[in-house]
Amino acid sequence: MTDMLVQMPPAAKAAPRAHLRSGRARAAMAGSLWSLVNILVATTISAAVFVTASRFLSPGDFGIVALATTVVMFISCAIPIAFGDALVQRTDLRDDHLDTVFWACAGFGVLLYCGLWLTAGWIAVWAETPALATLLPVIGVRLMLESVTVVPTALITRAVQFRYIALRTTLANLLGGGVCIVMVIMGAGYWALAVSQVLSSVVAVMVMLPAARWWPGVAVTRAAARDLWRFGIFSAGNRLLNEMRLDQMLVGLLGGPVMLGLFFFARRLFQMLSDLTVGVFSPVSNVLLASMQGEPEKCRRAFLIASYAPASRWSLVHNGPGPSPPCRVSP
Fold first, then answer.
1. Looking at residues 82-87, what average pLDDT do you find?
2. d(CA 150, CA 239)
3. Dihedral of alpha carbons 211, 216, 222, 223, sign
4. How far apart are CA 268 and CA 231, in angstroms?
5. What is the pTM of this model?
6. Structural domain boundaries of the chain?
7. Is pLDDT of 266 > 70?
């Protein structure tokens, strides 16, 4: 491990990417609008695909893919993806910080995918769901793809360039959703859901890497890992609680794919509403609060605004009555 560490010359370390210091209010408004576009596009396309696919697929089909996705997301918690948040938060960001996080994420992504590929058959037997033996190696490709986008996404977020994230989401959902609908109509069954996930991750890589205007180097250092360790571990713990999805895993293992499919329907509707509230403000508020680390009074006011704005939007969404979506699940 020691021989992998490359010490950087002093000149190479001085490559700061400073936080936004002026025009933050304007950037916050623009970022929130792009974040809203991102959420609206994703929610609209996902809802259309969800409603269409539900007319051809059974709850069991959704449940099998949901269980495979849950296993993959559970394994992904071992990838230091949350250290991307540490890159956004870091005041004096250097090239060795970026390279260290990139290669750590990429390395863990490859290793974990290999482990998943080798153990997919055993997991299928243990879960009493034979389809997992072939689904896990396919959906598991996301482990490698999404680990590559951690640093580019952090750089784009740090620069408050949320239009690129909206572009990524739009293209990924259009391609993934379109392929999913075509495959479902052609009778591909639950494979349509699996393939659409992988295609969406491929599009994310193709959009985020050029948009970040950054390419990884080999400046992996212990000092960079130490700089990011404290915030990264905290963020990793928070991500672990959100991404483990123990509820889905327990429902799938104990209740079977059909029950998990029904649970997935209800959870998906709730997630759409949540994305339209907290999901709009959270990415923008995180980077703006990080830029105000040396300004406690501005940080306090921004925190209050960021806390109450989603609550007021959620009240409007929750109290506004509307017709139920025309969703019919085939038996």
1. 86
2. 14
3. negative
4. 30
5. 0.72
6. 23-312
7. no
